[in-house]
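**Fold tokens**
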Amino acid sequence: MLIMTRRSRGREVALQVLYQLEQNPGVPPEAIRRFIERRLLGDAKLVEFTVDLIRGVQEQQPRIDPMIEAVAENWRLDRMAAIDRNILRLGVYELLCRPEVPPRVAINESLELAKRYSTGQSSRFVNGILDRVLQLQGSSCSPDSGEAEHALEPSQPSDVRPGDSDAGSPRGASPGEDPATPLLDQGSTKPEPLKP
């Protein structure tokens, strides 16, 4: 149970970083790394899990974004709320490229993020998109696909192994509007943007 909670927290921090990088693409890699380490209280294994998620989404984004647009009926990616767009990217990445994560877990974790950080209707939207991606899922990600520039360099090996498990609970809601403020940490009352 402890690993499940820790990985959920890692996904939450990964979402915060992906959102911040989309809003502020010039944030230096060392500031991102410090932000992650501070959020995860220096837990090396969890930091590497989170960094791997962020790097993976960045590398696979040229493949992930068209896939999301293809299954999102009547929604262009640029018209989706920024937070929903990044939740979807994270969920699609885990569905396609993280075979150690069961598909239902990847979807349920994304739904929890949507409920926490987006509107009440977003979880249904996210669920629908990820369900369609799962139905159409074909090949897995190859390590060489994607030539994206990385916000997190250099790559360091991860201690997260396929034996580490995840869990989530099914939940189920159409896209919301972009949040007006940066993401808040749980229990925080002030936005905490990435700082150099």
